[in-house]
């Protein structure tokens, strides 16, 4: 009797024929999709359990070359986008590749490509909040993810509308400038577009910092983002047995050396760490959360004062210096702490006219010593008669007493006000959401959301306590006694 080959078997044969070596199994892991599992007993001794050669990795340079040589329709798309001034970022190139290979190729009537076994093994459905129905989305009410998901959804919708006419050229019908080709059907739907974005973010590896920090790595494409077939079966764990490493030949999966003499038993799942990611980020990008996740964080838009006359200039200044208009608090041993970038964002947000704050148009004279020598800096920030041209100058100016104490006081008050507000908003929605959750089906997504909500609640309580303490420590003693 003829046996059917599964997509996994086809993929594994393809990987092996193309130089992937491994001493590890790939199998379904409950609630995680595919994952790695140890074959036999294994020592935790820095041994290599899988190797993926460079020629199997996907990055912008590789996709660009592939499109030119083997995928004329994809190349046409890239050229048309460039001609019309649409920026081809690494992310967009890889998303276009995934969409073309999974959906566009057959719509064009083209033969399957070399990459088919890889694209076929990618998950067909994703479970991130972008794919939630209205009920599940409502379960995010009151959380900081709610606005992030709405904003991302709107951004993807705008992007999709830009790319849609180009995708609609992926057709066996002759090219036309009319958008209403293919009998009014889109070749790539919005859901498929967000699938491409979701697959990209949940599987991509960033090589940038590794290439920069390892002078032994030579002759590697300069691209940051890479899709690494086979290695991207690795799931995330807080206690990973393995890590990945770059070499001049490819990528290795290594069983991390441990002081523990205990070997890894057969059939143990071998995970890597995706980094110190809080549940909010795991849910946003990957659609899951972890019960015992020690990493907590919360982000909210920079809170400018109501009727701040300088709001626009502050925003422009921050943008110019690459400061995101977002405040991120993370859990650190001593309390809830602002990231360095967020501290600067907060300083700018609480600076007032009475501190000597002014914004001036950039003159030629001030441009000469601008840190990035970029003549387009639209505004200079001034404190008193000091022009702040660099972020180091900003640090120095703010850290000078007496301004430093006053700014610290305002930052603490503003953060406290915001975390209190976020906590009370989360409290208000909790009851209603919990009711909704009880009446909902026993979905895995609901379990993940519940874990995230509880996590965010605890972290906000912790941040409120911590910033209340910080505020009290800045108050004169008699005031606290009252
Ligand atoms: C790089 S892929 C790993 C391979 C993936 N499981 C698959 O089926 O192809 C990352 C995705 O795996 C899933 N995943 C990874 N770690 C997980 C975990 N600890 N719990 C649940 N799902 C996980 C998530 O869907 C995530 O977006």
From TrEMBL:
PROSITE patterns: SET. GO terms for biological process: methylation. One of its GO terms (molecular function) is protein-lysine N-methyltransferase activity. Residues 22-275 form the SET domain. Keywords: Methyltransferase, S-adenosyl-L-methionine, Transferase. Transmembrane segments: none annotated. This is SET domain-containing protein. It comes from Gigaspora rosea.
């Amino acid at each position: 009797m003829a046996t059917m080959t599964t997509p996994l078997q086809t993929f594994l044969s393809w990987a092996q024929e193309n130089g992937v070596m491994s001493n590890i199994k790939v199998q379904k892991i409950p609630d995680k999709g595919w994952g790695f599992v140890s074959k036999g007993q294994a020592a935790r001794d820095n041994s290599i359990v899988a190797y993926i050669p460079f020629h199997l990795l996907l990055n912008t340079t590789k996709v660009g070359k592939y499109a030119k040589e083997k995928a004329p329709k994809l190349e046409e798309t890239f050229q048309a986008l460039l001609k019309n001034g649409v920026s081809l970022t690494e992310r967009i190139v890889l998303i276009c590749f995934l969409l073309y290979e999974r959906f566009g190729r057959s719509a064009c009537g083209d033969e399957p490509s070399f990459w088919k076994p890889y694209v076929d093994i990618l998950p067909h459905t994703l479970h991130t909040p972008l794919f939630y129905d209205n009920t599940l989305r409502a379960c995010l009410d009151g959380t900081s993810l709610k606005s992030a998901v709405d904003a991302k959804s709107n951004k993807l919708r705008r992007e999709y509308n830009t790319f849609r006419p180009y995708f609609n050229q992926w057709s066996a019908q002759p090219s036309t400038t009319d958008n209403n080709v293919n009998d009014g059907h889109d070749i790539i739907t919005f859901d498929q577009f967000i699938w491409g974005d979701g697959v990209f973010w949940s599987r991509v590896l960033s090589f940038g910092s590794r290439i920069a920090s390892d002078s032994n790595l030579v002759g590697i494409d300069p691209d940051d983002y890479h899709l690494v077939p086979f290695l991207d079966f690795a799931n995330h764990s807080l206690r990973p047995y393995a890590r990945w490493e770059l070499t001049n030949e490819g990528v290795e999966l290594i069983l991390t050396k441990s002081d523990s003499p205990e070997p890894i038993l057969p059939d143990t799942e071998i995970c890597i760490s995706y980094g110190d990611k809080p549940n909010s980020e795991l849910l946003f990008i990957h659609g899951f959360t972890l019960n015992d996740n020690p990493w907590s964080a919360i982000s909210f838009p920079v809170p400018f004062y109501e009727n701040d006359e300088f709001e626009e200039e502050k925003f422009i200044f921050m943008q110019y210096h690459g400061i995101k208009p977002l405040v991120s608090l993370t859990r650190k041993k001593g309390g809830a702490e602002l990231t360095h970038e967020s501290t600067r964002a907060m300083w700018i947000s609480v600076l007032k006219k009475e501190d000597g704050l002014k914004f001036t148009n950039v003159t030629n004279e001030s441009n000469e010593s601008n840190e990035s020598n970029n003549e387009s800096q639209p505004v200079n920030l001034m404190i008193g008669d000091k022009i702040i041209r660099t972020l180091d100058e900003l640090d120095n100016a703010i850290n000078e007493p007496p301004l430093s104490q006053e700014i610290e006081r305002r930052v603490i008050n503003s953060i406290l006000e915001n975390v209190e507000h976020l906590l009370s908003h989360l409290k208000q929605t909790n009851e209603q959401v919990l009711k909704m959750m009880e009446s909902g089906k026993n979905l895995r997504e609901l379990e993940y959301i519940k874990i995230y909500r509880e996590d965010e609640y605890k972290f906000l309580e912790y941040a409120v306590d911590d910033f209340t303490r910080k505020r009290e420590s800045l108050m004169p003693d008699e005031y606290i006694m009252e």
